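Reviewers asked in the last cycle whether our approach scales beyond single polypeptides. To address this, we selected a multi-component target totalling 728 residues and predicted its structure end to end. The input consisted of the following lines:
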Amino acid sequence: MDKQSTQSSEVLSKIERARQARRHKFYLRDDHVTLSHGSGGKATHNLIEGIFAPAFANTILDRMEDSATITLGDQRLAFTTDSYVVNPLFFAGGDIGRLAVHGTINDLAMAGADPLYLSAGIILEEGFAIEHLQRIVDSMARAAHEAGVLIVTGDTKVVQRAKADGIFINTAGVGSVRASANLGQALVAPGDRVLLSGSVGDHGIAIMLAREELDIETEVSSDSAALHTLVAALLDRIGTRLHCLKDPTRGGVATALNEVALSAEVSIALDERAIPVHEGVRGACEILGLDALTIANEGKLLAFIAPEAEQEALRALRAHPLGREAAVIGTVQAEFPGMVFLRTDIGGTRVLDMLVGDPLPRIC
Amino acid sequence: MDKQSTQSSEVLSKIERARQARRHKFYLRDDHVTLSHGSGGKATHNLIEGIFAPAFANTILDRMEDSATITLGDQRLAFTTDSYVVNPLFFAGGDIGRLAVHGTINDLAMAGADPLYLSAGIILEEGFAIEHLQRIVDSMARAAHEAGVLIVTGDTKVVQRAKADGIFINTAGVGSVRASANLGQALVAPGDRVLLSGSVGDHGIAIMLAREELDIETEVSSDSAALHTLVAALLDRIGTRLHCLKDPTRGGVATALNEVALSAEVSIALDERAIPVHEGVRGACEILGLDALTIANEGKLLAFIAPEAEQEALRALRAHPLGREAAVIGTVQAEFPGMVFLRTDIGGTRVLDMLVGDPLPRIC
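The resulting structure, written as structure tokens, was:
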């Protein structure tokens, strides 16, 4: 076997072992769907590993990346989908339409792909105001235009009153994987540095603050943004020394890092002081008793980088408007595979688990 | 200009004129979303032409085909999306999972593509039974396996009780357009024959009968089926003499033909006696006062074929298990562009319009 096929069979057996490990860790005990199953955290994984992964199993899906990577002729494509059920529909820093475009672009970008084409599958509740629909559609169009992607196909369904909640949007996306990209959770290796492109928790807290029941006086805006040009800048600079990208959406940084630790059979040691958290988010988390590391972001990425490329990567991120607050937040380790550890502000170390339960349903 | 680029610029200006014609014909007057906007008929077109088409306008979307056709490197790809909100979830001949796989495969097949990869975006209502979810997911997996497609990426969201209706499923799909395929509504020309692959109305009537409020004693099963092998058989036989394919889903044969007549700037003359309708469907339509031509199908196609290929195409369809009842049902004409005429059983002729209103909400 040549070197490449040895590597590829090693990656495949790693994916297989990770699949077994996940199945061992996640077990669906529920008889009915709960809101926690939509949290992106542990219960979501229980549902995915209990129901979807075994039924749909194939070598592409089993990698459990943000996008599927598929090869057609001379093309490496990324393909992904996300549904958006965020409540409320409009919030500081964005709306459901903008989020639906950015979120799917970002899943493509995490595969190292240039996003090209999106679909829009829209479910409407009878009685929804056309004026709101127009605002949301215009916002989708603007976000797509800004990012240079085309919405090329769509579908609209309508259900009766009280059978939906205004509007749900699904976007699927197709992108072209950059030649310089070779990314995957299974490629993360001990010694890799973990970089974060900016502050955590802004999106989730902005959504919470937009809900009427809360009355906290602080200004937090969603970080909703399309990350593909940031990824391109990073790939242009460090190429294959970039091993993996994740966008910490539902379940936040804590959940995304636990997913990588499980898939890559490594542990991750984080330095809490290095993680940027805006003042408003920190304050809201204290009042609400939330951990900012479990809160959703919609314009941030985690990058796993060969140690020698750390400073170059950091410079590349910081030179981009969406990466100005980028920081090295941790290191990948060999011991205790599947675990994430947090060295806290006050000098202790604790295990950082995935989000359990769901403090913030319908965050995206 | 060489012949091919002349043809292609003719097709493009035809698409542009059709876009103007549609915009002229469809006008959104409503302030709020109604169930009719989800019918697939006239109100759906009002919504699409009033809101989505102007906001997202681009040369791929403007073609308004069942799938977008995109070119990447040496590959011609089809890309499509559909959300499924059918009620009830289980019915004679299928369930929402099977439908979600077949429907998206069929949209790809209508572009002359071999379906390859699907995504699954699932929205669940809190409290939905895991047992039902398992049945639906197993059914999706079986339908995908039977059709030889892989579900490679997915997403699950959960909303509170009474904010959805059990489960909604979005599937997007990517397929590879066959080398022999050159299909599009704009390619339909006067003289073309209209072929239908089998009986009409089975799916819609099966759904109606599965609704508890109706108590009609007749056996009708959904025709839900994956049509890509039928399309492949047709393309293998007649190649580019196949001009256009449409699957008459929401809004039925009447709506699909009106869409083609508008896009291709032609009229279509149908022979009602030639259109296969199963006894149970005919009976149910009489009792319910419905026109079988406006009822949804989920395993049928309409093919527009160069006149000299009519008999070959008919033989190719009839030789396939899903085309045994195929029939030539009409002819494309130059006069009265945008209109569909039906020569009725009793010898008269009437205009056959798109579905107006929605006799059957949430049929798919």
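The domain at 185-351 of chain B is CATH 3.90.650.10 (Phosphoribosyl-aminoimidazole Synthetase; Chain A, domain 2). We regard this as preliminary and will revisit it once experimental data from Aim 1 are available.
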